Amino acid sequence: MWLGEQIDEYGLGNGISLIILAGIVARMPFAVISLRDSFNTNQAGSSGAGNVGKAVFLIFSFIFVVAGSILITQAQRRIPIQQAKQTRGRRVYGGQRQYLPLRVNHGGVMPIIFAQSLMLFPGYVFAWLNQHFKSPTFNFLNVEFGRGQFVYLLLEAVMIYFFAYFWTTVQFQPKEMANQLRDFGSFIPGLRPGKRTADYLEKVMMRITYVGGAFLCLIAVVPSAITTSVGIPIAATAFLGGTGLLIVVSVALDMVQRIEANLLMRNYGGFLSAGPGQKGKRIKGRQY
Question: Do residues 283 and 259 make contact, with C-beta atoms less than 8 angstroms apart?
Answer without folding.
Answer: no
